[in-house]
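Appendix C. Worked example: HAD family hydrolase
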Amino acid sequence: MKVGLDLDNCVVGIMASAREAMARDLSIPVSDIIETQIYWEPFTHNDPQIAQKLKPDLAFWDREDVLLGAPALPDAIEAAHRLHDAGLLACYITRRPNAVAHLTQQWLDHRSAPPVPTFHVGSTDKDDYFAQCKSHACKKLGVTHMVDDQPHEACSLSEAGINVILIDAPIGRANRHEFIAANPHIPVAANLPLAVDLLFDEHKRAA
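Step 2, the predicted output written as structure tokens:
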């Protein structure tokens, strides 16, 4: 077994950082920003005029303050170390574009995350955002299992023969639950520590 980990919403609390950045940009209290749990339009506001300004473009997610200001999700770094210490963690695979690879590495280094390769497979062009399947990166390092939060990723990875565990992050939960209902063979975990437990259980059964 070799495991790849998605970063945003699995290891990195990117939504908290994005919400704070939006609040700074608009000079409003962060508590006034309402989370919609929808991937492409994650925030809204009771004032319709402000709500219109809370629709980030793709470039927003590549901003240094958003990426470096994001917290690690609870116990996620420790869970990654459990995999690494067991010799199971092969790499991180993120939908971020390669242009922000230095910021990703800075974040990982600052939080003493396990030192494994990181693949950036996203694009700065929304039309090409999903053009490269994460399975290409998986195959480079022989990754057999991927932990991700995006149903779209789970679908393409599964079709490529990669085993997937879906993290049931708050963002995108409604769409994810629809996907889970239609794909009950794909396991789901509430967070990365629980996903790691599932991986260890499978690894023991295969031993």
